[in-house]
Specification:
Elements: H1 2-25, H2 29-42, H3 47-81, H4 85-98, H5 103-137, H6 141-154, H7 159-173
Helix pairs in contact: 1-2, 1-3, 2-3, 3-4, 3-5, 4-5, 5-6, 5-7, 6-7
Amino acid sequence: DQIRSLQEQALKADRLLSEAKQQFEAQNLTGAFRSASEALEADPDNSRASQLLSMIHGEQERRDNRRKLDEGLNRAKTLVLLQTYDEAINVLSDLAASNPNEPAILELLENAQREKAHQERRQRRWREISAARDALRDRQYEPVISKLEALESEFSGDPEITQLLMFAREEFAT
């Protein structure tokens, strides 16, 4: 009787293990986990059930990591879109630390850094032009000319800077 009971448990474990493998191959990790766990419960010494459970756990972990990566990338894309570059760069740097071989992270990180640099350059241009206008209103032509010349060499072809520089030179000459 005891031998027959053990045989029935082994058969049940084999059937459940076969079911678990099919579920695993079909990417149904929940079903595979349930069947493999039941197989191990029916036959605690079944090494194939233990191995399959280990594979299932590994795949679940891989999926969780991928989901976290995708969520992080989506968050970073949103932050870049909102021009919140520092926060986007922080999110991407954290993602890059845990996923060093993921090209999508590095590409988005480079893009965020480039966009941040462009934004800072535009803001600096605007601040310098505003300061130049204030100096022109105060008739401080000589210092503003040298500042505008430096700006013109940095932002070559910028018509606003060129016009302000021409005006400052004309006013200084009179």
